[in-house]
TrEMBL record:
Residues involved in GTP binding: 228-233, 247-253, 272-275
Residues the record lists as binding K(+): 228, 247, 249, 252
CDD domains, sorted: trmE (cd04164), TrmE_N (cd14858)
Domain TrmE-type G residues, every copy: 218-365
Swiss-Prot/TrEMBL keywords: Cytoplasm, GTP-binding, Hydrolase, Magnesium, Metal-binding, Nucleotide-binding, Potassium, tRNA processing
Major enzyme class: hydrolase
KW tRNA processing (keyword) present: yes
Record-given protein name: tRNA modification GTPase MnmE
Subcellular location as annotated: Cytoplasm
Superkingdom per UniProt: Bacteria
Pfam families: MMR_HSR1, MnmE_helical, TrmE_N
Subunit (UniProt): Homodimer. Heterotetramer of two MnmE and two MnmG subunits.
Designated gene of the protein: mnmE
EC number, UniProt record: 3.6.-.-
């Protein structure tokens, strides 16, 4: 990122062409620069219809202008929004004109959000939540991201830090003013129960990480079984489109084929894997190796058994949660319910597909049962929380240690919580986080 004193501009709305395009300008020169293109500026936070001209005075467009004086703006700086017609030529001409003024340049990826963070408009958890909200594709992803972007998860972390501040204050009072009459003796003995309760809350949040990851990144489902068990056909039937190649030739699927599903607001990542069998084909062996790697990484394995060819096949022990399903029920003659299979499906007729969707929902909900969606969903949070929990444990278990040492452990726990929200952090980490944003946000 370059100097914060620069005024920056970028397209802040979606891809072009569009009905309306929003160009955002932020920085100390925003009002002066835009006024040279539109004439008089409207009142703050009131849209005004203006004729917008290029630096040479040529007509560019007629659109709405809004101004947001600092600090009451997204970035905390003076901001302007130009609402133009969303043609590529119009937007490009407007950006060229803005960038033609001294002291103004095109924004870098995530630079608006970074300025909001640096000006105290958002903390790091809220920034990450905003990034997730922009990329959310399912309802549960939206709800999870909203808890972070709206500051609900940050409020949890801040509450924990405030408790630690109070506890440390009590310890400092005993250490520094134990001879004063208004400081009761052994006050620290009464605060360790609060520290223990705080550690339980932190550990509970760490335990919810997997639920957050599943909601954010998707529930991984691997389709496994012998060649021609109907894995690719089932994936296509669930996706309602041709994702995987289907042929009667055994070993058609050589690599892992993936697709994403939205079932009742949850994201599922389905992986169609190579048929599992002994083979001398080097390419197929590599496909089977990748299949087992995908299976071992799955949250749920769907073991498919072809009822028309393999009615006596038994489930394979995949060492992962497994749901055994009989396939091609429309081709099976004299079909007898198999104790090995939970139920039967037909990708051709659609039989059993709704039952499968319900079973997938039951599986993902069993992994995401949480009281609130204000839970961590990133490994960065979990790493900091684990360190905080470790320091809290050291303070609790160190009853034989001097009080100064135990107080230091509490201070270190507080530091780790501060790092989650970005109150204490490194430039390298900030650069990585904000680089994930698109230009204009």
């Amino acid at each position: 990122m370059t100097a914060r004193s620069d005024t920056i501009c970028a397209l802040a709305s979606g891809g072009l062409p569009a009905g309306v395009a929003v160009i955002r300008v932020s920085g100390p020169g925003s009002f002066e620069v835009v006024s040279k293109m539109v004439g008089s500026l409207p009142e703050p936070r009131l849209a005004g219809l203006r004729t917008i001209r290029t630096t040479s005075g040529e007509f560019l467009d007629r659109g709405l202008v809004l101004i947001f004086p600092a600090p009451n703006s997204f970035t905390g700086e003076d901001c302007v929004e130009l609402h133009l017609h969303g043609g590529r030529a119009v937007v490009n001409a407007a950006l060229r004109s803005l960038a033609g003024f001294n002291g103004i340049r095109l924004a870098e990826a995530g630079e608006f959000s970074r300025r909001a963070f640096e000006n105290g408009k958002m903390d790091l958890v809220e920034v990450e939540g905003l990034a997730d909200l922009l990329s959310a594709e399912t309802e549960m992803q939206r709800r999870l991201a909203g808890e972070q972007a709206n500051g609900h998860l940050s409020a949890v972390y801040d509450e924990w830090r405030e408790k630690l501040v109070f506890v440390r204050a009590m310890l400092e009072a005993e250490l520094d003013f134990s001879d004063e009459g208004d400081i009761p003796g052994s006050v620290s003995d009464r605060i360790w129960a609060d520290v223990e309760d705080l550690k339980l809350q932190v550990d509970r949040a760490i335990g919810n990480l997997r639920a957050g990851e599943i909601i954010r990144d998707g529930f991984k489902v691997a389709l496994a079984g012998l060649p021609n068990a109907g894995k690719s056909s089932l994936m296509n039937a669930l996706a309602q489109r041709d994702v995987a190649i289907v042929t009667p030739v055994a070993g058609t699927t050589r690599d892992v084929v993936r697709c994403e599903l939205d079932i009742d607001g949850y994201k599922f990542e389905l992986s169609d894997t190579a048929g599992l069998r002994d083979t001398d084909d080097v390419v197929e062996q590599e496909g089977i190796r990748r299949a087992f790697r995908t299976i071992n990484d799955a949250d749920l394995v769907l073991h498919l058994i072809d009822l028309s060819e393999q009615p006596k096949a038994q489930p394979i022990d995949f060492d992962r949660p497994t749901l055994c399903i009989g396939t091609k029920s429309d081709l099976a003659s004299n079909l007898v319910p198999s104790s090995a299979c939970a139920f039967h499906v037909s990708s051709a007729s659609g039989e059993g597909l709704e039952t499968l969707r319900l079973r997938l929902l039951d599986a993902v909900r069993s992994h995401t049962q949480v009281e609130s969606l204000a839970i961590p969903s990133r490994l960065r949070h979990a790493e900091r929380l684990r360190l905080a929990s470790r320091h809290l444990a050291s303070a609790l278990e160190g009853s034989f240690l001097p009080l100064e040492i135990r107080a230091e452990e509490l201070r270190l726990a507080s530091v780790e919580l501060a790092r989650v929200t970005g109150r204490i952090d490194t430039e390298t980490l900030l650069g990585k986080i904000f680089s994930e944003f698109c230009v204009g946000k």
